[in-house]
């Protein structure tokens, strides 16, 4: 019984001795060579360097990159690594990396003049802005004509920008005439004088009708038609079936 109790006491002493030695080793050999990472956020570059110098650590400020910040003045530290805090230790002689603030982000409405509406919307997203209303007007100049707010206006993030977009005026509309039984060489000039184009001509043999007479048409008589609509006709010819596509 006494031997068992002695073993327990001995084990407890060993654990205490190990814990005490670990604490002493950490305090004097690790913590003694380390310091809490200082908080440099918001400090000027000179103040941050002085703080690091006093603690025996180095400060490396990135000269190529800056960070926009609405809370930190331009030229002050906006980011650091490692992060500050008493729980974050850094060895003396180690380096803290930092980037300075460039102040608040200044956004300006881009110049969208002449751009397609879809392209302008994509650019708004890239500039941290958002599309507002989209209005269209018939205009010979196609693309974005104006923006509200106007181009180069300083705005805040996610400001809505409305666009006025010019689109081609609609082509004049006509009622498709009846082309059946008319010669193609007379119909074609008539249609072209009104901005209409015979895009496809098909030839078929048709007994009792001389060559060159239109026997079918598309669009049909009475249908709406404009210069944007292709017109197809089938013409009689005493030769094997053929298709001719009109060239412009």
Quantity of strands, as a count:
16
Measured as a percent range, the helix fraction is 10-25%
| Proper CATH architecture of the largest domain | 2-Layer Sandwich
User: Strand count, sense and closure of the main sheet?
Assistant: 4 strands, mixed
**What best-fitting shape do the alpha-carbon axes yield?**
elongated
Strand content: 35-45%
How far the N terminus sits from the C terminus, by CA atoms, comes to: 115 Å
What is the N-to-C order of secondary-structure elements (H for helix, E for strand)? HEHEEEEEHEEEEEHEEEEE
Number of helices: 4
Number of discrete domains: 3
Structural class: alpha+beta
Flag low-confidence runs.
24-31
What does this protein structure show overall?
The chain is of the alpha+beta class and 248 residues long. It folds into three domains: 2-103, Trypsin Inhibitor V, Chain A, CATH 3.30.10; 113-167, Trypsin Inhibitor V, Chain A (2-Layer Sandwich), CATH 3.30.10; 174-245, Trypsin Inhibitor V, Chain A, CATH 3.30.10.20. 24% of the residues lie in helices and 36% in strands. The strands form six sheets. The chain has a four-stranded mixed β-sheet with strand order 13-15-12-16, covered by helices on one side. It has a three-stranded mixed β-sheet with strand order 2-5-3. It is elongated.
Task: Describe the protein's topology.
Elements: H1 2-30, E1 34-37, H2 45-55, E2 58-68, E3 77-81, E4 85-91, E5 95-103, E6 107-108, H3 117-126, E7 130-138, E8 143-148, E9 154-155, E10 160-167, E11 174-175, H4 184-193, E12 198-204, E13 214-218, E14 224-225, E15 231-236, E16 242-245
Parallel strand pairs: 2-5, 7-10, 12-15
Antiparallel strand pairs: 1-4, 3-5, 6-9, 8-10, 11-14, 12-16, 13-15
């Amino acid at each position: 019984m006494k031997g068992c109790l002695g073993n327990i006491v001995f084990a407890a002493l060993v654990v205490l001795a190990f814990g005490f030695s670990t604490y002493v080793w950490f305090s004097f050999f690790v913590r003694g060579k380390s310091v809490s990472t200082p908080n440099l956020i918001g400090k000027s570059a000179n103040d941050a360097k002085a703080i690091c110098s006093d603690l025996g650590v180095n400060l490396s400020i990135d000269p190529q990159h800056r960070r926009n910040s609405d809370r930190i003045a331009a030229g002050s530290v906006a980011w650091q690594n490692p992060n500050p805090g008493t729980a974050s230790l850094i060895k003396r002689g180690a380096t803290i990396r930092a980037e300075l603030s460039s102040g608040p982000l200044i956004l300006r409405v881009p110049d969208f003049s002449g751009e397609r509406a879809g392209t302008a919307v994509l650019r708004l997203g890239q500039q941290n802005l958002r599309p507002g209303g989209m209005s269209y007007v018939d205009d010979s100049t196609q693309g974005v004509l104006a923006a509200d707010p106007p181009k180069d206006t300083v705005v805040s993030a996610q400001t809505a920008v409305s666009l006025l977009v010019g689109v081609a005026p609609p082509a004049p509309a006509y009622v498709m005439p009846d082309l059946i039984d008319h010669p193609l060489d007379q119909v074609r000039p008539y249609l072209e004088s009104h901005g209409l184009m015979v895009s496809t001509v098909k030839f078929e043999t048709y007994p009792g009708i001389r060559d060159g007479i239109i026997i079918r048409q598309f669009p049909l008589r009475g249908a709406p038609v404009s210069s944007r609509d292709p017109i197809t006709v089938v013409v009689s010819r005493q030769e094997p079936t053929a298709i001719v596509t009109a060239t412009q």
